[in-house]
Design brief:
Shape: globular
CATH topology of the largest domain: Rossmann fold
Number of strands: 23
Mean pLDDT: 93
Strand order of the largest sheet: 6-5-7-8-9-10-11-16-15
Largest sheet: 9 strands, mixed
Strand content: 25-35%
CATH class of the largest domain: Alpha Beta
CATH architecture of the largest domain: 3-Layer(aba) Sandwich
Structural class: alpha/beta
Number of helices: 11
CATH superfamily of the largest domain: ANL, N-terminal domain
Radius of gyration: 23 Å
Bound molecules: adenosine-5'-diphosphate, zinc ion
Length: 447
């Protein structure tokens, strides 16, 4: 059961699930990581894939790992490796021991599969329970899970963690906004889990039904599964009058429960007893300097059925320095900037969609939905940013519209060094996705 830890002399309380591991001393944590890493190598060596890869790297047994630093001698595993190994080339246990499989949502191509034993599911559930408790949510909360319950890990992952915490769980799954609102009203939902884009859409739908968010019992939201800016988090918090916590995970590392914000929202605590996380330069593959942005690479430490060594996530982030006031020693990641393959090259300039979102969400007249479109005009790229406007702040004056278009265009130019064509759309007119938002449409020919 979730506990509250009182930090003596500091007059503060911190909600916590598993104090022994969450407040573990660094040295003890590293000893644990090393022991788990050796076990993981032993599991990995049961797959022909890693037998070959590890042999190529000169490693034949777990004892070849003398210290945690030796993780750097292990081979990388890529998404393509997982695709080639599909469906069972990376299965490290007998099939009878496997109780579930999940696949990635396939945002960027053929899916990948991850198998779980009952032990793996129990470990995963515990990690999610820690995340939930760290936000101050408790068994007294009513939790409505608005993410898909299929192969996508967001549904079942959060579901089991929330049950473990003892919350009343409403397995609403994604979509059907009218019913989501009805459930929230009937059962006084106090915590939701959804993609940030879906929560913004839900807010517009509430307004459409004449429901004030304050009439609901909502207190907290867990938001993740897609990149979003600090501005988007603030927008969600102020629109609903709640606290929103960033949740990071990927199906290759179980799903949700990898890293999560605590009540202090100072970055996402990564559960280091379950993962070794490195940040590397995407081209040199060398570790980046402390605090520099690079690609997240992760090694599972507790997974039997599909151990993964140095998995290249393609997600970009950096470590947050210093200590979190909550006292947890598990290091914190900054919010994910995007994927290395999200980067757009527009007339030779590198642009991340998150930079565009950040500026849009800082503009009060901008509504909750937007779309980035790339076109080719002759030999030049053209960037079109389509954005909905906030009905409450807009008067309908055509001069004001022209002025707003120009203001947004200039704001974006100063941030990304490319001047976009800005199109303003009525609220609710741009396509909405029930799962991960599709924000970029690239209409440029492939060559
Ligand atoms: P797919 O890789 O097919 O999208 P997943 O469902 O495994 O399938 O998605 C995981 C990915 O979603 C992560 O690698 C990351 O790119 C993105 N993601 C998950 N959580 C967050 C978050 N909090 N912030 C930004 N991106 C996130
Ligand atoms: Zn903290």
């Amino acid at each position: 059961m979730a506990q509250v830890r009182i930090i003596k002399g500091k007059d503060m309380t911190v909600p916590v699930w598993n104090p022994a591991i969450e407040f573990i001393e660094r040295e003890a944590l590293e000893r644990l990581q090393l022991a788990h890493l050796r076990k993981t190598i032993a599991w990995a060596l049961k797959t022909p894939f890693y037998q070959r890869r590890l042999a190529e790297a000169g490693l034949t047994c777990p004892e070849d790992i003398a210290s945690l630093r030796d993780v750097r001698n292990l081979p990388y595993t890529t998404k393509d490796d997982l695709r080639e190994a599909y469906p069972d080339g990376l299965l490290a246990v007998d099939r009878e021991q496997v109780v579930r499989l999940h696949t990635s949502s396939g945002t960027t191509g053929t899916p990948t599969v991850i198998y779980h034993t009952q032990h793996d599911l129990d470990r995963w559930t515990e990690l999610v329970a820690r995340c939930i408790a760290a936000t101050g949510a408790t068994r007294r909360d009513v939790f409505q899970n608005m993410t898909n319950y299929g192969l996508f890990t967001g549904g079942l992952g959060l579901h089991y963690g929330a049950e473990r915490v003892g919350m009343l769980v409403i397995p609403a799954s994604s979509g059907n906004t009218g019913r989501q609102i009805q459930l929230m009203r009937n059962f006084q939902t106090s915590v939701v889990h959804a993609t940030p884009s879906y929560l913004l859409h839900l807010h517009s739908a509430l307004a459409g039904e004449g429901v004030e968010p304050g009439q609901l019992g909502l207190r907290k939201a867990f938001i993740g599964a897609e990149p979003h800016s600090e501005e988007t988090r603030r927008k969600i918090e102020s629109l609903f009058g709640i606290d929103a916590y960033n949740s990071y995970g990927l199906s290759e590392m179980n799903g949700p429960g990898v890293a999560f914000e605590c009540v202090y929202k100072t970055g996402l605590h990564l559960w280091e007893d379950a993962y070794i996380l490195e940040i590397i330069h995407t081209e040199t593959l060398q570790p980046v300097a402390e605090g520099e942005t690079g690609e997240i690479v992760m090694t599972t430490l507790q997974r039997q059925a599909t151990p993964l060594l140095r998995y290249r996530t393609r997600d970009l982030s950096h470590w947050v320095s210093g200590h979190c006031p909550c006292g947890r020693g598990h290091r914190r990641l900054a919010r994910i900037k995007g994927r290395s393959d999200d980067m757009l090259i527009i007339n030779g300039v590198n642009v991340f969609p998150s930079q565009i979102e950040d500026r849009l969400m800082k503009t009060p007249e901008v509504g909750v939905n937007y779309l980035i479109q790339l076109e080719k005009r002759g030999s030049l790229d053209r960037l079109v940013v389509k954005t909905e406007i906030d009905a409450r702040l807009f008067t309908g004056d055509p001069d004001a519209l022209d002025d707003l278009r120009e203001r947004i265009s200039e704001l974006l130019r100063s941030a990304i060094l490319v001047k976009p064509v800005v199109e303003l759309h009525e609220p609710g007119s741009l396509p909405v996705s029930e799962g991960k938002a599709q924000r970029v449409v690239d209409l440029r020919p492939a060559f």
